[in-house]
Amino acid sequence: xxxxxxxxxxxxxxxxxxxxxxxxxxxxxxxVDAPYGLVHLAGGWAGGKVSETSSETxxxxxxxxxxxxxxxxxxxxxxxxxxxxxxxxxxEATRKKIAASAAYTIAKTGLNTLIEMTAAEVAGSxxxxxxxxxxxxxxxxxxxxxxAILFLLSDAAAGINGSLIAVESQP
Length: 171
Hints:
- By secondary structure, the protein is an alpha/beta fold.
- The chain has helices at residues 22-30, 55-76, 93-96, 102-122, 139-153; strands at residues 2-4, 12-14, 37-40, 84-89, 127-134, 164-167.
- The protein has a six-stranded mixed beta sheet, sandwiched between helices.
- Helix 1 (22-30) packs parallel to helix 2.
- The longest helix has 22 residues, at 55-76.
- The radius of gyration is 16 Å and the shape is globular.
């Protein structure tokens, strides 16, 4: 997770935490005084049809892609400055429903809903919550995702809240 002190890149502070351990997340968040922004870019991918996905894979995908975001957002919100920004990296799979990626796509779709619910709860507070939905990350797409993150952290994005934003390699 990345926590920001300000809207400029120099304000970035990478914070390490075991995102599967609430105490670790709580301690990491507490180490940053009044965060301005949170970028949740943790996650993982596993393929498999619904009929072929093990419970272990299901739980791992939900944990990595959804529960980790829930825990971090829950811990950051009370400490976040106003204005503030929450950005999650989701996936284009949530729009395209790619076959044989059931647990991953369902977990990322849950992440989208978490962002939309968070946005509804913080509406009018000066905090915004949005998700970026990139495809498979190549060099061009990584740069576009980074640019989108910087924009969403900026004052110019103050009116964007609850959006699920596709980020693509091709213009």
